[in-house]
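Instructor's aside before we start: the two examples that follow are unrelated to each other. I chose them only because their records fit on one page, so don't look for a connection. First example below.
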Amino acid sequence: MALKNLRTAFPGKDERWYNTTIKALYRFTVEEIVDFLSQYAHFDENTVHFNNMQVVDDALKENNGVILVGGHFGSFHKLIVTMARKGYKNIAGISYQQNNQAASKFFVELRKEYVANELHTGGPSSDVKQSLQNNELLILLSDQDAGKKGVFVDFFNIPSSTPSGAANYNKTMGSPLIFFSAVKTANGYEANFEKIDTNNKSIEDIVQKYTFMLEQEIKKYPEQYFWVHKRWKTKKI
């Protein structure tokens, strides 16, 4: 699946590029999983360099919650851990609930040190609204195939069903919307934040904007994206 997605997103590359990128992808992914399972016991948050964090701080001052939108890209878990360790205790996140109750409890336990309010996909929207009313930092990873409920926007020049929750909550709650990413570099990790201008923009325009921003980051670090999911499963009719 990862190789198929890479070929789709980056057509025309030679076989050596695909194979090298796949190997780097699995190396990166395994390292991230091991760190996650060890609860980041050996992770030094000082290796994470924040760029433009003032954007988040200014948004929090509006006291209307903040929506941080990104994707399954880079070291996003380490960014969340670092933020929690540096005093951002009001982090909320929406995750998929595991079918296995034991597994679900296991992952919640692993995340509870840095995600203060864990919500689940498909849960009541009132929980999300309450989170924003409590001025929490709501983290949404909005890049997986959203089926028939998604908004179709271009992702690597392909119409792609994309979650629109971040855009919808921005419109209904008025909470600032900020795109974030965290990539591993030779010198540690670089975390970036950029506020999205949503004034007079449609839901589709907003979804396209943060999808395009994610795409630009992936192009710089293709080995740090979670290519193993079926990103283009739903076809536009």
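Example two begins here.
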Amino acid sequence: MKKVIIISTSLRPGSNSHAMAEQFAEGARTAGHAVELISLRGKEIKFCVGCLSCQKTGSCVFKDDVPAIMDSVLNADVVCWATPIYYYEMSGQMKTLIDRMNAMYPKDYRFRDIYLLTTAAEDEDSTPKRAEVGLHGWIDCYENSKLKAHLFCGGVNGVREIEGNSKLQEAFELGINI
């Protein structure tokens, strides 16, 4: 059994990327894994100011919801990010969280496999590439980890527009097969 954390970064109720995150979570639970699905909706996540005190003290000077999220990530075997694509890039709140998790860099971590789930109104294969490259910037800081899979669903824009889309089943199967 693996400990799986899924971070759903969309702040929109009924978001398509969150629907993919839920299916990934359901698949992982079906396979017998311990799953924690964290939505950034309603979370307080302040911007990193680059003071680097976290590198000296192991914790950020800001007191918000990031330390709890970071602790879950550090202790997970598998980390899955789910994000809508905005202007051909990951959501701003996902990038803000990644920046704030700078305090993780010198710490021990368990995660090895990273997954990325993305959705967008555009449906070209190139649409999510910048988000994937951006996530690689974080992954590359953790030499024992790797991007195991990236599942993209394009052509979905409106709330719950993904319902009935075959990519939801693919997300479920991805979760089963982690």
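The beta strands are 3-8, 34-39, 78-84, 113-119, 146-153.
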